[in-house]
Design brief:
6-stranded parallel β-sheet; globular; Rossmann fold; 6 helices; alpha/beta
Length: 173
Amino acid sequence: MNKIGIFYGPVGGSTERVAMKVAKELGEQNIELVPVKDASVGDLNRFDNIIFGLSTIGKETWHSDQAAAAWDVFFPNLDEVDFSKKKVAMFGLGDSVQYAQYFVDALSTLGEKLMEKNAQIIGQVSPEGYTFDESQALINGQFIGLPIDEDFEDDMTNERVKNWVAEIMPQFI
């Protein structure tokens, strides 16, 4: 198996914890964890297999003139990478209770960019078993990546990660 780059942010919270769970489930010897705050185009180009992990921060933040957050700075790097031969999976953190109408919407923003760049996106997830009102991350009836709610459904995270990794792992070989 080629090494998988897990690009995640922000650092120091739930997104990083879930990135570490994904890495452990995949087998840490197969993984390189890369915080997006430290990542470059060169880092992205080193991997044919990539997992992105992010939290929903609001669409207006993605397109803001202020580059305050790590993803704000990192996101433009995606334009400089040829994703046509890369397999990409994503996980997104969101709050399905307080922000039920925007659940894991950041997955959609990232997914749209990756589709535009012809990435082969793997790891879609059924919305069955999730509680939310709306999500832009639903494409053709499936989440474009793995939704995680560490605020209100943290007891489901381990099982969701395990099941998702079992699905994506054979596709990364």
